[in-house]
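Q&A log
Question type: sequence-to-structure
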Amino acid sequence: MTLTLAPFPLDQTASLALAADALRVRLAPGEDLRDLLPPIESAIRSARATGGLLRADGETRGIVLWEPAGPLGVAVRLLYLSPPNGNPETYRASLTLAERAAGPIAFAPGPLAGLSEEEESVVMRELGFVRFGRSEMAFPSTAPVPPTPVLPGSDMRPVRPADEPLLARLHERAYRDHLDRYLALEALDPVHDADRQLREYFAGRWGELLSPGSVVVTLDSRLVAAVIAVKRAAHVLVIDVMTEPDLQGRGLGRLALASSVRALRDRGESAIVLNVTEENERAVRLYSRLGFVRTMGPSKEWYDARRIPVRLPAPVDR
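Response status: OK
Response body:
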C-alpha cells in the first residue's frame, strides 16, 4: 500500500471527523474534547491547518496535522489511522510521508490508534523517538499553605524588573539540555533563547507577571532560584520554577515555590496551576510534596532523540 498526502479541502467532512477521532484517542486524563477540538476544526475549515489526509488506493486511511516548523523541526499534533489501517507498517509510512512533506519531525503524538503500547514503542524507537509525558498539577484551594523552610544564608523577595538579565542567565543554566527547554524553543542559541524567554515573561506574552507571586531566592547575595507566576483568565499559572543546577537538592526550589504559593494566596489567588514533564522525577516529587495534585495528564508523546539531546535531572530531592 502506497500512502499519499491529500489536502484537507479534498474532503473537509472526513477531515473534521478524523480530527475528532484522533483527539479522542489521545485525550489525557482530565482533558475534554470540547476544549481541544474547536481550534483544530477552525484551522481545517479556514485552510490554515498544515498536514492532510492520508490516502491509499483512492480511499482515506487517516489524518496527520502538524504545526509550522521550529528550529528543530515540526511538531506533529495529530497522527491517526482509522481501523483497520492502524498497523506498524502504515504508521512508519505515515511518519515518513509527513517528514518528506514537512521536514524533520521533532515531536510526535501518541498513543497510535490500533497499536499496542509495545508495538508503538518498537515503531517509534526504530525511528529514533523517545517517550515523554506532560501533566497539569494544581494547588487545591483548600490545601494549607506549605511552610517556607529556613535556609542559612538565603533570602527571598518578589521579582523586580531589574532581575530580568540575571533570571535569563539562571534560566539558561537551569534548562540547558532539559526537555522543557526544547518544548518552547525558538532560538537554537541557549543564551539568545533564555533572553527571549525572560523578555516575554516580563512583557506579558503568557499573562501578566505577578509580583508579589513571582519570587527570587538569593544565597549569599547570589540569585540561585526563582519562580515566575502569571495571571491567566481562569487561574494563576506558575510558568517557571528554576534552580541553579549545582545547588539542586538543597531545598532552594522548595523555598521559592512555597514562598510563591504563600504570596499568591495572600493576594487572594485560589486557583494555582503548573505543568510538569513526568520524566522530571525531581520536579514531580517536589510539587507533590508541597501539595500540588495532578488535574490533567499525563499525555503520551514522543521526541526525536537524534535532534534533541536531553539530559534528565537526577531523581534526587531532599
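Response note: The chain has two domains: 4-127, 137-299.
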